[in-house]
Amino acid sequence: MKEFRVFAGRSNPALAQKVCDYLGISLGRRALEDFPDGELSLKLHEDVRGRDTFIIQSTCHPVNRNLMELLIMIDCLKRASADRITAVIPYFGYARQDRKDEGRVPITAKLVANLLTGAGADRVLTIDLHAAQIQAFFDIPVDNLSASPVLTAFMESVDNGPIVMVSPDVGNAKETRAFAGRLGVDLAIIDKRRVSGDKAVSYTVIGDVAGRTAIMVDDIIATAGTIVEGCRLLRERGAKRVIVAASHGVLCGPAVKRLIDADIDHLAITDTIPLAEGAAQIPGLRVLSVSELLGEAIRRIHHDESVSSLFIK
Q: Is 100 a catalytic site residue?
């Protein structure tokens, strides 16, 4: 098989380099710059004709620029006669609007799926989609990996007496129950109501957390309203320690300040998104790398091997 190429946009170069280090290859050379009017200029400095190619690009802040970079890189590879183009999107943005839950709203997750396919992507590799059904919006293969092996390893390192896994809301209960099963611990669920886009109110905890280490797990921490309110409630119900783990640390708006002020013993997030400004000041912060997970998936895709074992939740 021909040597494959891995390129990266500007959203998360550190993660892209770690993935290439795992694979034992060099990151593909390219020139990606901004024109004075804000348009993007791209030039590849690698031969990709007939080769398997991968583009690592999270569609995180600035979302629109990073998404456009990804689309332009896909188009460039297509026109350079790459054999197969895989969009590696560690964090898939625009995923929270995945259905019409009221009148006159878009379905942005489907729109982005159409854009990626139309640009020429042959395959998508991502981690913990906000809603698993988004895979069905694509007419090309989608590998939705789980960050659970990385997060579970962190949770297993926590040795502070009895542990209870806590779902921050009812909708996340299935995933949290899977973590509880792997760790062999009890499950608790927070009954939450969302007041607005950046504010959530937690009403009660279903389950016993008193005297235990409560580990609350979620896929995305955006403004941190849900997490901070949940931590407050867990403390009120007698939790001895509160630990939070999430796949994607978006940490936008008031999130960093909220988490600095919150009564959290540890916060574990992965590096699908670069650390937000000021986030290093969050007490007990741990950044876990998904580079080996992505690197192994890329290796298996290139060699036409199964990646299903990496989906296990």
A: no
Q: How many residues does the chain have?
A: 313
Q: What is the pLDDT of residues 263-290, one digit of tens each?
A: 999 999 999 999 999 999 999 999 999 9
Whichever domain contains 75, its CATH number is: 3.40.50.2020
pTM tops 0.90: yes
Residue type, 157: S
Give the separation between CA 16 and CA 89, rounded to whole angstroms. Answer: 11
Range of the domain at 106: 5-146+291-311
Provide the 3-class DSSP secondary structure of residue 124: strand
Q: Which residues of the chain have pLDDT under 70?
A: 1, 193-202, 312-313
Residue pLDDT, tens place only, 191-203: 876 655 556 565 7
Which pLDDT score is estimated for 140?
Answer: 98
Same domain, 173 and 66: no
The pLDDT value recorded for residue 194 is 62
Which tokens is 197 given?
Answer: 């886009």
- Looking at the DSSP bridge assignments, the partners of residue 199 are 196
- Residues 9-44 pLDDT 10s: 999 999 999 999 999 999 999 999 999 999 999 999
Question: String of b and e for 58-94 (b: at least 16 CB within 10 Å)?
Answer: bbbbeeebbbbbbbbbbbbbbeeebebbbbbbbbbbb
Give how far Cα 81 sits from Cα of 51, 52, 78, Å: 8, 10, 5
Taking the C-alpha atoms of residue 191 and residue 202, their distance in angstroms, rounded to an integer, is 6
* Cβ atoms of residues 168 and 191 within 8 Å: no
Catalytic pick among 78, 192, 199, 240:
192
- With residue 289 as reference, give the H or E element that holds it: none
Give pLDDT, residue 2: 72
In this structure, are residues 201 and 195 in contact, taking their beta carbons and an 8 Å threshold? yes
Q: Is residue 112 domain-shared with residue 225, that is, in the same domain?
A: no
d(CA 250, CA 58): 11
Residue with tokens 């964090």: 91
Count up the domains in the chain and report the number.
Answer: 2
